Amino acid sequence: MILLDKFYRETKSILLKLPGAPSSSRMAEFMAASWGFRDHQELRAYFENIETCAALPEHFDSDDEAGLAKLAEFGCQGWPAKDILATFLALNDGDLLWEMMDEYPLLEGAAVLRFDQTTDRWKDSMEASWKRHSKALGINRVILDLSSMPGWRQQIEFPDIGRHISVINETATDNCMELNEDQFEADRQISDAGHPSLYDMMENILMMCREALPKGETDPEPYEDDPDPEKDANAAMSKMVQALIVSHDGIWSYCHHYQNDVGAPVWLAIFEDGKITRRKSSMPR
């Protein structure tokens, strides 16, 4: 990460909104420690040298142990500290966090929290829409498989989004399935009453929140030996296994790199006064 003052200020603003976040001055000390500075004063000196052209911007790796230790000094421990650290690393390192997740044992069970992408009004609207669909369709969860949608970060319309959506019914455990005829009819009645359809709800969430999700860049090198269309298609798929999920506890996306079974969810909204469900599984359950 090339460290600039603008990135520092934007990242700090996001972190300060997270549950259990320390004060602004203490958050500044946490960030400085995570980048290897002795304190915030030394970090400010680095920025001042850049502004006066006395030095050039530099790349700084993040130090998860130093960051977590600094939060502990301020009495921020447990899941709040781990979630702050995970969110900081996601902002600082991008997809590299998921690619190297097995090297961050301190983050087991932690979540990346990106509540900065939307508003409370939007969250309340999505919660109402989810409750409406959950009751009418009899579902516990709806899942949008981003791994099967190359280009989901750039598209401006998703006319075939329904092909990538599955649900888990109230009577099921973890078996995903397509909507049945009764559920399609219930969804149509919701739409006819002037409310968003299930597909519209999921497309809205994707459009509003996709910038907060790992990029999952595609593999630029297709299979060269023994050309096979199916293999070439798989090679062009995302390097990240991702699913955008809405359930009773909120909106989140489970993400893990295809070479690493250890992942971390990105939470986009928590419904009511619910708590983040800690999942160790590599796939949504």
What does this entry show, briefly?
By secondary structure, the chain is of the alpha+beta class.
Task: Characterize the structure shown.
The chain has helices spanning 5-15, 24-34, 40-51, 64-73, 78-93, 96-99, 120-137, 181-192, 198-209, 229-235, and strands at 112-113, 139-145, 165-169, 240-247, 250-257, 264-270. With 285 residues, it is of the alpha+beta class. Strands 1-6-5-4-2-3 form a six-stranded mixed β-sheet. Helix 7 packs across helix 8 (181-192). It starts with a helix and ends in a 15-residue tail after the last strand.
Question: What is the strand and helix layout of this fold?
Answer:
Layout: H1 5-15, H2 24-34, H3 40-51, H4 64-73, H5 78-93, H6 96-99, E1 112-113, H7 120-137, E2 139-145, E3 165-169, H8 181-192, H9 198-209, H10 229-235, E4 240-247, E5 250-257, E6 264-270
Parallel strand pairs: 1-6
Antiparallel strand pairs: 2-3, 2-4, 4-5, 5-6
Helix pairs in contact: 2-4, 4-5, 7-8
Report the helical percentage.
Answer: 25-40%
The major β-sheet equals: 6 strands, mixed
What ranges have pLDDT less than 50 throughout 5 or more consecutive residues? 219-225, 229-237, 281-285
Q: Name the beta content range.
A: 5-15%
Mean pLDDT: 87
Given the C-alpha coordinates, what overall shape results?
A: elongated
User: Helix/strand-derived class?
Assistant: alpha+beta
**Strand order of the biggest β-sheet:** 1-6-5-4-2-3
Number of strands: 6
